[in-house]
Design brief:
Length: 291
C-alpha cells in the first residue's frame, strides 16, 4: 500500500484497505480504479479519511466528556486554571504531526502518479478536436507524424475506441487542434487537460483490469462538448499485439477488434443525437434538424 497509516489500519482491522473501502462505500471515492496509480490514490484517500474520523471521534469524545464531567453542579465556581502546559504542547504538536504525515504521503503518491519512465512500453498520442478524438499509436516519444503506426479517429456516427494492454506502461501525449479539452476516464481516477499549440501534456498509467470503460471530455469546449465520448478497451498484452498487428496490416478498428474477439463497436456509450441531421423520435416521428 505504501502508507504507514493504512498498514497500521489493516493490522488493527484485520482486513485490507480495499475491503475496508468497500465495506463503507469507499468513503465517497468512486472506486479503487483500474490502474496502479489509481490504487495508490485510493489507498491514500481511505487512510486519510479513517485518520480524520479517528481525530473527529477523539475530539467529539473529549467534548462530551467535558460536558458531562464538568457540568454545573451548584452555584460555586470550579477551580480556575490559567493554563496547562503539557496539554497545550499536546494539542499543538499533535496537529502538526498529523499534517506532516498526510503531507508526506500525499507528496509520495502525487510524485508516483506524475512519474514518467524513460522507456514506456506503449506510446499513444491523444489528439482532441471539436468534438471528437483521434488516437495515434506511436513507435516512439515526441512529435512527428512518422512515428504513428496506426490511428483511430471518431466521428459523429462512430464512437472512437482506444485499445490498450493491461500490465504495461502506457504513455499518453496529448495535444489539441483547437481549444482546451480534457482527457478523462472516470475509472482511472485521473484526468489531464489537452491544450492546443506547442503544449503537450504527458502522463503515464499502467492498467491492471481488462474491460470496457467510457472516456469523456471533462472541459467545457463548445456546443457539442457533452457528445465528446470515447471508449477504452483494456485487453491482454497478447490481444493488444494482435490488434496492433491487424491495424498495421490495413484492417479497420472494427475488423481488428473482431479479430481479437471483441465487439467491433462501443458497448458502454453510443453517439448522441447532435441535431445536425434528421433524426427519429422513439414514437416513430421524424423531425427535421433544428426543430
Amino acid at each position: 500500500m505504501g502508507l504507514g497509516g493504512a498498514t497500521l489500519l489493516t493490522l488493527l482491522s484485520g482486513c485490507s484497505v480495499e475491503d475496508l473501502g468497500k465495506r463503507f462505500g469507499h468513503f465517497g471515492w468512486p472506486s479503487r480504479g483500474i490502474t496502479l496509480q489509481a490504487h495508490e490514490m485510493y489507498d491514500l484517500w481511505i487512510a486519510s479519511t479513517v485518520a480524520a474520523l479517528v481525530v473527529g471521534f477523539g475530539v467529539w469524545g473529549l467534548i462530551f466528556w467535558c460536558v458531562i464531567r464538568y457540568r454545573k453542579r451548584g452555584e460555586d465556581l470550579p477551580v480556575q486554571t490559567r493554563f496547562n502546559m503539557p496539554m497545550e504542547i499536546l494539542y499543538t504538536v499533535t496537529p502538526v504531526l498529523i499534517v506532516a504525515v498526510l503531507f508526506y504521503y500525499t507528496a509520495i503518491v502525487q510524485t508516483n502518479v506524475d512519474k514518467l519512465s524513460k522507456n514506456p512500453d506503449n506510446v499513444v498520442e491523444v489528439v482532441a478536436f471539436k468534438w471528437n478524438w483521434q488516437f495515434n499509436y506511436r513507435n516512439g516519444m515526441g512529435e512527428g507524424p512518422e512515428k504513428t503506426i496506426a490511428s483511430t479517429v471518431g466521428s459523429s456516427d462512430v464512437i472512437p475506441i482506444l485499445v490498450l494492454p493491461v500490465g504495461e506502461t502506457i504513455r499518453f501525449e496529448e495535444t489539441s487542434r483547437d481549444v482546451i479539452h480534457s482527457f478523462w476516464v472516470p475509472e482511472m481516477l485521473f484526468k489531464r487537460d489537452v491544450f492546443p499549440g506547442n503544449v503537450r501534456n504527458v502522463f503515464e498509467v499502467t492498467l491492471d483490469k481488462t474491460g470496457r470503460y467510457v472516456g469523456r471530455c471533462a472541459e467545457l469546449c463548445g456546443t457539442y462538448h457533452a457528445f465528446m465520448n470515447f471508449e477504452l478497451v483494456a485487453v491482454t498484452p497478447e490481444n493488444f499485439d494482435k490488434y496492433l498487428a491487424a491495424r498495421q496490416a490495413g484492417q479497420s478498428t472494427q475488423q481488428a477488434l473482431t479479430a481479437i474477439g471483441e465487439e467491433p463497436y462501443a458497448t458502454k456509450t453510443s453517439p448522441f443525437n447532435t441535431r445536425r441531421q434528421a433524426h427519429t423520435w422513439n414514437q416513430g416521428e421524424t423531425a427535421a434538424a433544428g426543430k
